[in-house]
Amino acid sequence: xxxxxxxxxxxxxxxxxxxxxxxxxxxxxxxxxxxxxxxxxxxxxxxxxxxxxxxxxxxxxxxxxxxxxxxxxxxxxxxxxxxxxxxxxxxxxxxxxxxxxxxxxxxxxxxxxxxxxxxxxxxxxxxxxxxxxxxxxxxxxxxxxxxxxxxxxxxxxxxxxxxxxxxxxxxxxxxxxxxxxxxxxxxxxxxxxxxxxxxxxxxxxxxxxxxxxxxxxxxxxxxxxxxxxxxxxxxxxxxxxxxxxxxxxxxxxxxxxxxxxxxxxxxxxxxxxxxxxxxxxxxxxxxxxxxxxxxxxxxxxxxxxxxxxxxxxxxxxxxxxxxxxxxxxxxxxxxxxxxxxxxxxxxxxxxxxxxxxxxxxxxxxxxxxxxxxxxxxxxxxxxxxxxxxxxxxxxxxxxxxxxxxxxxxxxxxxxxxxxxxxxxxxxxxxxxxxxxxxxxxxxxxxxxxxxxxxxxxxxxxxxxxxxxxxxxxxxxxxxxxxxxxxxxxxxxxxxxxxxxxxxxxxxxxxxxxxxxxxxxxxxxxxxxxxxxxxxxxxxxxxxxxxxxx
Length: 549
What we know:
The protein has helices at residues 21-40, 65-71, 77-92, 97-116, 121-142, 151-162, 171-185, 262-285, 299-307, 318-328, 381-404, 413-426, 433-444, 446-454, 459-471, 498-516; strands spanning 17-20, 50-54, 59-62, 144-145, 187-189, 192-194, 200-206, 214-216, 219-221, 233-242, 290-293, 311-313, 332-333, 345-355, 358-364, 372-378, 406-409, 477-480, 485-488, 495-497, 520-523, 545-548. The chain is α+β, with helices and mostly antiparallel strands. It folds into three domains: 17-145 and 408-526, GroEL-like equatorial domain (GROEL, domain 1, Orthogonal Bundle); 147-217 and 369-404, TCP-1-like chaperonin intermediate domain (GROEL, domain 2), CATH 3.30.260; 220-252 and 261-368, GroEL, CATH 3.50.7.10.
């Protein structure tokens, strides 16, 4: 009797890799936890910085979560999902990226413990969703209102955002700059606040001290006047914004000019000169004494402008032109023939100043500017870059606080209060979801625990003290990382926008649930037979930059 051999069935191309079941979940959770651990040591005022060095030797020194993760060129697909959490937090709020990533990593760590206890991932996912929804409700209940007139609270929000970053030593002056900048660009429409932080231009220049950073009620351009004979300073500036070249335009098609007489050549040159003179006359006739041009300005036109005492800069970027329009109240004109007095913007003074080793154009003293500039100074390129990142965080925090109109205390206070509320909520549940909600509450406490660890404190002692204080309804009790004692974070001015917390909980729980539900990972083979991305059990390579941790 012959035994019939069963031919194996191949459904994947040769070289593909497949990980299924528990091993796929473990690999994904391990990758996500590794990303969270990378940025965890940067959390809080006493968090450490990371030095990121790329293959060209360029160095970035920062403790900004999203910057670290973007510079690391992470390849593992599950780890990339955690990076997306940081990006979402950055886009939505501008701060709290490390909090969101650390929370996502801890949620997965807690979920792994539940999986080991034979609790199905879909049950954990359901419990996490219930906990995330309840978290939004609890956070909104404990939050305090904030209004645009409450300058002191807004200053405290800015100071909290900068603490622990390179801007800390000058946080008093920088927080005032942040609040003033946001209030300048803030607009009201149908009773709603509109704040676009893109209207706050951050210009950085190496040299001077951090304390020399200033807010300009107008725009600073990294441009100089185009002709040395032009005035260096123009007071009572009437600004023309041109999206049209002040030069003779080349024809679209190829043309040939035959000249048989030198007089014809001279007539041709005279015609060009006359056309340029007419263009400058049109600008002068509108009353403009300052011109910012998005395109080129011919050398001859520059000469005519300087004769008329007009200050001009060329090749100004589109984004800067839009900011100039918002700051001066002018209109961007695309056709010189349409330029009129009504299109001009106004600035109290336009001047060229030497900052460091470069000339820059200051457009200041604008009437009610809706676009302003923060000029950041610092001793080195790395310092200036880190101050800029801290500034962006504080601007995002102030804007988020004003848009939502609610704030909470920092220093781990809101997380401990949230965990307390979630544990109480879990008592109303039956079944295994109760375990998942408790695990969620445990994960939330990673934030105050990490703050304590990064400050060299004993996390067990600190957490015990915090929980005892919160049990006596002292909801804003947090950690003073500098003294190692527990404090009333609200009274001590450690205040953060509610949006940071709600967005971090929302993003972290969503990505944790998504990763938990994956039980099969299939990596397609590359064209040369090897796996294209590979599916290693750990990080799958974090090439691009080396890390000095």
